[in-house]
Amino acid sequence: MAPISRGFIGRRRPVADPSLVPPGQYVTSDFPVLSAGPTPHAPRDEWSFTVDGAVQKPVSWPWNEFTALPAESVTVDIHCVTKWSKLGTRWKGVSVDTLLDGVQTGAEYMTAWSDGGYTTNLTVQDVTDGKAWVAYEFDGQPLEPEHGGPARLLVPHLYFWKSAKWVRGLTLTLDDEPGFWETYGYHNHGDPWREQRYQGD
Amino acid sequence: MARAAIPGRLTWQLGQVLELIDEAPRCKSIVLDVSDWRGHRAGQHVDVRLTAQDGYQAQRSYSIASAPEDPELVLTVQRLEDGEVSPYLVDVLRPGDDLELRGPIGGYFVWEQALDGPLQLVAGGSGVVPFRAMLRHWTAGRRESAARLLYSSRSLREVIYRGELTRLAHGGGVDVLLALTREWPDGWEGHRGRIDRGLLERAAWPPEHRPLVYVCGPSSFVETVAQALVDVGHEPSRVRTERFGPTGA
């Protein structure tokens, strides 16, 4: 049991459904931005999305082909390790299932990589069966660069650093290789419901 | 992007409040005695957790303002009017209280003496907090690479660590340039207005010196400054950012 903080009451904001908010999180209506460096601005005509690594045949889509793939509109709750959660966010993008459809691989892990050098590691299981998208619209508008546009990974069931901004590809790997924040002491998996913020949580 | 060693498990610890120091309106430094603090690097932060009588808890992250070589752990907190944790820390907390925290957290937005290149810091408002740790650490070590701080504040009254920054600027070997955006004292000789591309070109380490640049402040400030730095020729991989905000880290 944590010690009581003398005189602390808190400003408890009414939440429609508290069961939607993972432990240690608070709900915000803002859309805060976190990033380790300057925002990249990749021109659409130089953008492509690639699935490669431990696969039989790498595959790549330029922007116009990528956005012509079957897209899904999803409404999901997102949870940032810096404690904010945002409920009912609306996105449009391509399901990772669609991107991996036809890709032959025995790999169980992958590294999502981005313009600017950011990486994050995920298991294939964590991003398949309708659990992850490469999103290019937020709230009915093209995704802004600050929030990861042209496209970002969207893995809402994990802390939001796993939803790599400015994502350009998924590299399938036979071993689990920690990404950027995972190497700096953040949790390898990042399940907000188990409050897996930092290594050892 | 470079990789660092993975630290061990972060457990919650208690720090005893030794002292509260008024730094600026709505802004205090909390001096803590944390008995088994594992040490930290300049630029890292901690999570603070408050617990109410009925078990309700709130957590937020705060930058560490003390250098690795300082004897006590110091957090500097600015009260956000709509905040939940910062009003408690600034208005309710008092010496003798225990504060629950865990850390240090973060390994990228850090400066260490082993890093090469001149040190360029660009702060907006309370974004100066991790830079106090970095400048103290810089002062404690070698001096061959000069440090520069560009610091944007609404008014002189709201400048955090004003006395310490003045000492660093006069004989401390740090170039400090204050940019005041809303109010200027009579005869103000520093910059008037925001930190923009022109000021970065005039006053920051130029790209050809390959400085390591740290930008910290509100999100819109960081976005603008980081973009301007890239526009004037700084390598994106040498620009490290951390964003503060009512809801950010």
Description of the structure:
The complex is a heterodimer of chains A (201) and B (249). Chain A is mostly beta strands. Chain A has a single domain, classed as Sulfite Oxidase, Chain A, domain 2, CATH 3.90.420.10. Chain A contains four helices and eleven strands, in the order βββαββαββαββββα. In chain A, strands 1, 4, 5, 8, 9 and 10 form a six-stranded mixed beta sheet that branches. Chain A has a five-stranded mixed beta sheet with strand order 3-2-11-6-7. The longest helix of chain A has 5 residues, at 96-100. Chain A is globular. With 249 residues, chain B is α/β, with parallel strands linked by helices. Chain B has two domains: 13-105, Elongation Factor Tu (Ef-tu), domain 3, CATH 2.40.30.10; 119-244, Nucleotide-binding domain of ferredoxin-NADP reductase (FNR) module (Rossmann fold, 3-Layer(aba) Sandwich), CATH 3.40.50. Helices cover 19% and strands 33% of the residues of chain B. Chain B is built from five helices and twelve strands. Chain B has helices at residues 86-92, 129-140, 162-169, 197-203, 219-231; strands at residues 13-24, 27-34, 45-51, 57-63, 73-78, 98-105, 119-124, 147-153, 174-180, 191-192, 212-218, 239-244. In chain B, the strands form two sheets. Chain B has a six-stranded antiparallel beta sheet with strand order 4-3-6-1-2-5. Chain B is globular. The two termini of chain B are 21 Å apart. The relative contact order of chain B is 0.16. Classes of the chains: A mainly beta (201), B alpha/beta (249). At the A-B interface, loops of A face β3, β4, β6, α5 and β12 of B.
Question: The CATH topology of the largest domain in chain B is what?
Answer: Rossmann fold
Write out the CATH superfamily name of chain A: Oxidoreductase, molybdopterin-binding domain
Average pLDDT of chain B, rounded to a whole number, is 92
- Greatest contact between two chains: A-B, 41 and 52 residues
The biggest sheet of chain B, with number of strands, parallel, antiparallel or mixed sense and barrel status, is: 6 strands, antiparallel
Overall geometry of chain A comes to: globular
Count of DSSP strands of chain B: 12
Note the run of SSEs of chain A as H and E.
EEEHEEHEEHEEEEH
